[in-house]
Amino acid sequence: MSGKLFFLLNVEEGVSLRKVVLDRKVQEAMQEKFTTLRTSYRKEDTDIIDFEGGYKTGKNELFGVDYKLDKDMRNYLDNPDSAPEFTFSSDEVKRTFASLYVTYDGGDDDRLVICAQIINRNAFLSRSRWFMFRSSKLMESEESGVQLPSAIAGLYIDGRLYFRVFNSARRIFTDLETMHEDANREELSSFVLSQHFVLEHVNEGEAISDAKMGYLESHINTHHRKAIKRITENGVLELTTEELVSVAGRVGYQIKTDDDCIILPKSKAELKELIAFLDERVYKEAFSQRVVLTNSRRPI
């Protein structure tokens, strides 16, 4: 089966897929282009790592996650003749934001492969916006066209999705957003449900775990989430409450406790300070002995 090209469009219902009809020469050019892109994107020595929010992949790294395609999209990709055609109307051009080049690897398992790209509106070339050379003379084009990017936003290979930049990949593979939120929630749950913490008040009949999660999610922002991730990874909560209180005393920070548990403060400002302490960003100034909070983590 030769490769197929599809465009993704933003529509009121969400995302709509359109099949792009290719002639034989363009099919051959596309096959060569995307084979090269795919090979250079995921080389044999590329390190595939589990997704972590906030982590920036290196030059030789890709995130790799299990990913299930939307049922309707998968049906169109497996049966391209059933997909509506892209007509190059002005409305479709305005709504187009991505392309999918779809092939099947040869072999017994015949794996589905998708090279996904983000398309900028400027990639579409109307007759009034571009010119071409003919016999060394620059002339107005008689045709419209599109210039596909030279970068891949995501590479899907039969149930696995590889990407370098989360924000680019999630525009096309929208379920990534939910996966990211679930991962964040698991990290928050591990933190706040720790035996170290207790709430001053829990509503009658409310589960303590639900109360703690509701409290945390209503009190924190993105910066706090990243700090909580570092706290968990650094093993800070492996210390006992007594040890944490002792460390706090050395830097002049006061922790409120009740029955060997740290009381989660009511105010957002106080919670920010507690998270900063656990994230090792509270310290005592050498001369004035003031207790201060710093955003700098640069070692000296």
Number of helices: 9
Rounded to an integer, what's the Rg over CA atoms?
Answer: 27 Å
Number of strands: 17
Q: Which structural class do the helices and strands define?
A: alpha+beta
Helix fraction bin: 25-40%
Order of helices and strands: EEHEEHHEEEEEEEEHHEHHHEEHEE
- The average pLDDT value, as a whole number, equals 87
Number of domains: 2
In percent, how much strand structure appears in the residues?
15-25%
- Give me the side-by-side strand order of the main sheet: 2-1-5-6-11-12-4-3
Taking the alpha carbons of the first and last residues, their distance comes to 59 Å
Q: State the shape.
A: elongated
> Tell me about the biggest sheet?
8 strands, mixed
In the predicted model, the low-confidence regions spanning at least 5 consecutive residues are none
Q: What is this structure's SSE topology?
A:
Elements: E1 4-11, E2 14-20, H1 24-41, E3 47-49, E4 61-66, H2 71-78, H3 90-95, E5 96-104, E6 112-118, E7 124-125, E8 131-134, E9 137-140, E10 145-146, E11 154-157, E12 160-163, H4 166-172, H5 175-192, E13 197-198, H6 208-219, H7 222-233, H8 241-251, E14 257-258, E15 261-263, H9 268-278, E16 282-284, E17 291-293
Parallel strand pairs: 3-4, 13-15
Antiparallel strand pairs: 1-2, 1-5, 4-12, 5-6, 6-11, 7-10, 8-9, 11-12, 14-15, 16-17
